[in-house]
Write a structure and sequence with these properties.
nine-stranded mixed sheet; alpha/beta; 2 domains; three-stranded antiparallel sheet; Alkaline Phosphatase, subunit A
Length: 376
């Protein structure tokens, strides 16, 4: 099956918990790195070099391969001023582009609204995760959240057809038009209609999919398999959002982070191989980010919450290379012991919004920020 529409599609992969950028893209020739991390540093022979200063974690072979092929941009030191070391606050800031106040609308929610202002497609955006990330939430924007595509749908737990039909009839009546008005009632009514419409479309997707790729039996691999299956069904989805958790590596980081890298490395590899097999990769880019990096100095077993981190953009249309500057790990030049932020994440968003989706970014990210030439 070939995706013939070729509409720009963005897949966002959030590494939840604060990925250790210093042990993902490693300054393997720096004495400061080894002095700072006596318990969790990677030996030079265990690094996948990309130049004479930096190399990937030994378990990130897929990332190295994309970089070597010129299909991955690495944004170094990405973050924001006066970084919050709180998971909740930092994620909120990344999700809403509001560092100074708590906001209710996400940046991708605004993107979706601009991409489909008339709400013609209830599946313009899909989150493959449990719950709905704030990044995709915005007023009057339908977003479908899927935990498992194979079991997704309304009242699928009811096996008997007559009972399910009766329950569906009740559901439809609950959300059908009725007298009276009000913003809350209108919202509930429309939400019910969108959920029902989206479920009816998506239930056909698993039966349409065929692939030689064998995804790993891990949550992130299965999530990206669902992304691939939906993308290949040509449903007009322009934004996918998924998450990979466990990056809060305060303890046992060497083995724990190794497993995380192995899982995400395999999942990303299989996902793009699947798209390439179906000639459906040219209109897809993936953005991988995490809410902050980790402390430069290890704590004896792991690392604590930091500041600046790194983001990755992958795809056939990506201008590969290193962007911004790798933050110094020299003790006198760190941000109180953390990697200092070098590049505002809102510039990364702006680059994607304008170069990929051809939309204006200031109203979405809250101002004008330096863009990088990430997409061709």
């Amino acid at each position: 099956m070939t995706n013939t529409q070729k509409e720009p599609t963005l897949v966002v992969l959030e590494l939840v918990g604060g990925n250790d950028f210093l042990n993902t893209l490693i300054p393997y020739t720096s004495g400061f790195y080894y002095d700072s991390r006596p318990h969790i540093a990677f030996k030079p022979e265990d690094v996948l070099p990309i130049n004479d200063e930096l190399g990937f974690n030994k378990n990130a072979t897929t990332l190295q391969e994309f970089y070597k092929k010129g299909k991955m941009g690495i944004v170094q030191g990405v973050g924001y001023p006066d970084s919050s070391r709180s998971h909740f606050r930092s994620r909120d800031i990344w999700h809403t582009c509001e560092p100074d106040k708590v906001a209710t609308e996400g940046w991708l929610g605004k993107v979706i609204r601009d991409l489909d202002p008339n709400k013609e497609n209830v599946l313009t955006a899909i989150s493959i995760s449990r719950g709905l990330p704030r990044a995709v939430v915005a007023q009057d924007v339908p977003v479908t959240s899927i935990g498992d595509l194979d079991t997704y749908g309304l009242l699928t737990g009811i096996k008997h057809e007559d009972k399910r039909a009766q329950a569906m009839s009740i559901f439809e009546k609950m959300y059908s038009p009725y007298t009276g008005a009000g913003m809350v009632r209108d919202y509930l009514k429309q939400t019910g209609r969108d959920v029902q419409a989206g479920a009816e479309i998506l239930k056909t997707v698993p039966g349409m999919y065929s692939s030689s790729i064998e995804y790993a039996d891990t949550p992130i691999s299965q999530n990206l398999r669902d992304v691939a299956r939906i993308h290949l069904a040509d449903l007009g989805v322009k934004v996918f959002y998924t998450q990979h958790g466990g990056y809060d590596t305060h303890a046992n980081e060497y083995s724990g982070h190794e497993k995380l890298m192995i899982d995400v490395n395999r999942a990303v590899k299989d996902f793009f191989m699947d798209l390439e097999e179906h000639d459906a990769a040219d209109n897809v880019i993936m953005m991988i980010w995490s809410e902050f990096g980790r402390r430069v100095v290890d704590n004896g077993s792991g690392t604590d919450h930091g500041a600046g981190g790194g983001a990755f953009l992958i795809g056939n249309r990506v201008n590969g290379g290193l962007y911004s500057e790798y933050p110094s790990i020299e003790p006198s030049k760190t941000d109180n012991g953390d990697l200092a932020f070098q590049y505002d994440f809102r510039g990364l968003y702006s680059s994607v919004i304008e170069q990929w989706f051809k939309l204006d970014s200031p109203s979405i990210v809250g101002g004008n920020f330096e863009q990088l030439s990430l997409i061709n």
